[in-house]
Amino acid sequence: QVQLVESGGGSVQAGGSLRLSCAAYGYTHSTQFMGWFRQAPGKEREGVAAIDSAGMTRYADSVKGRFTISKDNAKNTLYLQMNSLTPEDTAMYYCAADEWVGHNPLSISAYKYWGQGTQVTVSS
Q: Which alpha helices (H) appear in 1-124, and where do they start and end?
C-alpha cells in the first residue's frame, strides 16, 4: 500500500507560479511511476505530467513549457512546478503512483494509488 499526500495548492493570479508537492508513504516500490492529474469542475480528470524511475517525463500539450515535474527519490516526494498559470489551469490537482503504467503514463486508468488532491485556483 502507498499513501500519497499532496500539498502546495492555493490561489494565485494569472501569470503567477505555484509548486505542488506529493509525499509518498508506505511501500514506495509502488512509486516507480508517478504522475499529476487535474480535474476542473464539470470536466473529466486529465493527465498533466508523469515521470518514471529513470527520470523520463511526459507532459500534456496544454502545459508543455510551463509546468515541470520532478521527483526527489531520497524524500519520496513528487513535485510539480507550475509557471505562467492561467485561469484554465484552475482545478483540483491529484498525485498518482504505480509500479507500472503501460504505454500511456498520462492515462487515469494506469494508476492504482491516488492522493486526495490539492486545489489550485488562478484568477484573471
A: none
